[in-house]
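Hey,
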Amino acid sequence: MNVIYLESLAKDLKKIKEKKLLKSLSQVFIALEETDDLFKISSVKKLSGHPDAYRIRIGDYRLGIYYSNNEITIARFVKRNDIYKLFP
């Protein structure tokens, strides 16, 4: 699947210091690139009110993604209490 990483994601990742969390995140990135179906990945949920917005749970953090036309755009990676303020 085609995966696009936004600049806002890079800014969010610079703030993360936990190595275990970064390792889990890299595994999710690999899974997103290799999958044919987004919903085969665990903890993917559609956000209500936004037709292309989804989130993936990784510990206390959420990965905000857009999915349309077999293309995934990864936008944000922030704590769970902030994701709904910053994404979408």
